[in-house]
From TrEMBL:
The lineage of its organism: Eukaryota, Metazoa, Spiralia, Lophotrochozoa, Mollusca. This is EF-hand domain-containing protein. InterPro entries: EF-hand-dom_pair (IPR011992), EF_Hand_1_Ca_BS (IPR018247), EF_hand_dom (IPR002048). Keywords: Calcium. Gene3D superfamilies: EF-hand (1.10.238.10).
Length: 118
């Protein structure tokens, strides 16, 4: 992955945040948040399938791998077995607690742990 050694102590879900924060201001804009979830869309068809989600979750070494299918079901609001751009927008909106259009690292940590816990 070529991860800088200074980030060696960060957890995989945090790496995902920093990797997606291309403006490097410790906030995810809506675009950066969408791009974070686009990482999961392996075939780039704008939909995240359950298989894509599970494989990427495992590949990224994110926590609670055995629950990845459940996390997928929670994100797939209309239960059509795909996470589409509207559903990604909902995730990004959910993570932005103060509604300022940006997900701070605090908001990210707080919501990630709440949402993706066993
Ligand atoms: Ca896809
Ligand atoms: Ca869906
Ligand atoms: Ca915010």
């Amino acid at each position: 992955m070529g991860r800088p050694s200074t980030l060696a102590a960060t957890k995989p879900y945090e790496d995902l945040f920093y990797q997606s924060d291309v403006s490097n201001d410790t906030f995810l804009s809506r675009t950066e948040c969408r791009n974070l979830w686009a990482i999961f869309d392996a075939d780039k068809n704008n939909y995240i399938s359950k298989i894509e989600f599970e494989l990427k979750w495992t590949f990224l070494d994110l926590d609670h791998k055995e629950h990845a299918p459940i996390f997928f079901e929670e994100l797939d609001k209309n239960f059509n077995k795909e996470i589409d751009s509207a559903e990604v927008q909902q995730i990004c909106f959910f993570f932005d607690d103060d509604g300022d259009g940006f997900i701070s690292k605090f908001e990210y940590d707080y919501n990630w742990k709440a949402f993706f816990s066993a």
